[in-house]
Every structure is written in C-alpha cells, then in structure tokens.
Amino acid sequence: MKTLGIFTFLMICSTLTFAQFFQLGIRGGLNSYNVRYDEITVNNVSIESASKNGLHLGFYSRVQVLGFYVQPELLYTRMGSSITTTTNGTASTADLTFQRIDIPVLAGKKFFGLVRVNTGPVFSNLLKADLNENNLTQNITNTYRNNSVGFQFGVGLDFWKLVIDAKYEGSLMRFGNSISTNGQTFTTDARPSQWMLSVGYRVF
Question: Within 13 A of 187's CA, how many CA atoms are on the CB side?
C-alpha cells in the first residue's frame, strides 16, 4: 500500500513537471485576409483588392526550451479577398476564396507568467482556390503556388487553460503571377497577408 502511494505521488509529480515543459491543445479563430494587388490598369480596366474575413481551426503544441518556447501548429485556414475591376467608371466585384493547410513554427518567450511574444515561419499548402464572379464559381487553384512560405509575429495571453493570440502574417514569396477577371488577365506580384485572432484550449 505504501509502495502504491509512493508510485502515485511520483506519477503526479512527473505529470506536473511534464506539463510545465509540454502542452497540446486545440485552437480556432478569425482572420482578415487580403491578396494585395497594386492597382493595375490594362486596356482601360483597373483592378484593386480588399480584405475579407475568414476562419482557421486546428491544433497547437508548445515545448519549453531554456526559458523560451517553440510552438508548432497545424491549422486549416479558409480566407478570401474581393477583387474589384473598373471599366470606364463601371465597377464589378468578384470574390476569391482560398483553403489552405498552414504549419506555423513559432518561437517565443513568456513574461510575468502571463504574456507571450512570438515569431517564426509559416509553411502553407494550398488546397483549393475559387473565383466567384457573376454568381459563377471557377476553380483557379492552378493559378497560384501549391506551397508557399511566410512569417508570423504576434502577442499572446495564457489564462488558466485558455490560450489567446493575435498575430500578423506576411509573405516571403509571390503567391501568384496573374489573375483573370472581368474578361481581362492581369499580371501581378500578389503577396498575401492576414491578421489573425484565435482562442485555444490546452488539453494537457
């Protein structure tokens, strides 16, 4: 009986110690996304973009290393951007929708046991890209890179088992070379960016 009590005590201590160095949880939230096209004019038709809201959900883990932490994540991200073309003063709007698998690998540090700052690369795989124009949806996945690399930085807050993060994501490479809308093809240097607000729950 005494041996069982000692074993139970050691198991509890080991679990608590492990929890201090490793975390695993779920997370989800909202993002405001934009594939930024500089305003371009082709054959008297101009194009410009605007951000739209999307969502993301998935898992995160966190490992403590020498006073810092590494936080890999696996996220499904759905986002979009609106594209407005103007021909002789008449505007027409189309909607872009992207679905991706994102893997951010962030490094950071916690201050005062509560507030975190972090930054790192994000590796993205494009699942699908759609263009909705005049109530017709086209699959334009082949127009964009299947894989891309960006960066994220932000701040976070840990409270009880809740993990709250606000992050900005930028691109390190061109996402697409052109877009066709309103009967015109525009050569672009598209570099996506997004703001992300997420809430997670630490499972253990």
Answer: 1
pLDDT tens profile 110-150: 998 789 999 999 999 999 989 888 888 888 888 888 888 99
Integer angstrom CA distances of residue 1 from 11, 15, 66 = 15, 21, 38
Is the CB of residue 193 less than 8 Å from the CB of residue 171?
Answer: yes
Q: Give me the percent of the chain exceeding a pLDDT of 70.
A: 75
- Per this entry, what is the length of the chain? 204
CA distances from 136 to 25, 139, 157, 162 (A): 39, 10, 42, 41
- What three-state secondary structure class fits 5? helix
Whole-prediction pTM value? 0.80
**Residue that has been written with the tokens 């046991």 in this structure:** 113
Q: Strand pairing of 40-42 and 22-36?
A: unpaired
CATH class of 22-202: mainly beta
CA 105: distance to chain centroid?
Answer: 11
Query: Cα–Cα distance between 28 and 194 in angstroms, integer?
Result: 15
Angle at 91 between CA 87 and CA 79, to 5 degrees: 120
